[in-house]
Amino acid sequence: MPQVVPYTFDTHVEAALFLKDAPVFALSDGTIRFPAGGEKVLEAHKGGLVTARYDAFSHRLLTGGEDGRVVATLPDMTLSELGSAGRKWITAVAGGPGGAVGYAAGRSAFVREAKGEAREFVHARTVEDVAFAPKGLRLATARYDGANLFFAGTDAKPQELDWKGPHTDVFFSPDGRFLVTVMQENALHGWRLEDGKHMRMTGYPAKVKSWSWSAKTKFLATSGAPAAILWPFSSKDGPMNKAPLELGTRGDTMVTAVACHPSDDILAIGYADGMILAVRFADSKEALLRRGGSGGVTTLGWDKEGRVLAFGSDSGEAGVVDIAS
Known about the structure:
CATH topology of the largest domain: Methylamine Dehydrogenase, Chain H
Low-confidence stretches: none
Strand order of the largest sheet: 14-15-16-17-18-19
């Protein structure tokens, strides 16, 4: 079994990732922890952290808090405030091209480019999530009864993608061909952006809380079932009329976190009992990375080489797994 370097925090781990080669953990108490080589603690938010997401465009950690601030944590262990919503909680954050940042507070989504003021996009109901397209300054928002697409640098009306029900999260496929939302009703919904065609991904016994795209956009891996559910997206029609691949089934133990390897067809899977497996797509071969713990795995993140995996749990247990050891 690979070597695990454990860390213990006193609160829920919202995000585990790497900035350059350093493992970083965002905690629900509003702190950012760099534990390797003597722990460094950054106070990012007063009152608590609401959301955290890695910004792959600018290689930084973005967080939003109960203090109404959007904060970037940089690889040099410094903080930078990128936006504010006054007294409203920041409930979603996303990184965009050229250093842009998007965020949500109440019924508004905001986009702020690296230079300039934030632009506000008001919605009729609460904005649940925000995401940027892989190319161009195009912002998607999740809302009740669907999603909106904005060209964030213009005043043009949004493209509305409708589907009945609450949509709580939104993300693009890495190739920009599909938009997918997580629904409150234990399902995913998708649109093929070239023509707006719908895609239903259903059958989950629980709400999907973790997702990850595999290399070259072959699969979308998700939690929410007693196995990792991988929907095929390599064809023009995405997962329509295709059965998903199921990996890492362990009886009734729920999958709670997933992270696709950055280059190989391998999936890291975290479970409700704290166990972590690595599973190969081709033959479902499993490798045990962690036996278990006191809480369910909430987050998984690979380093850029795919040699080291960071993890965190809802009990505050966290660590780094050296796959090469």
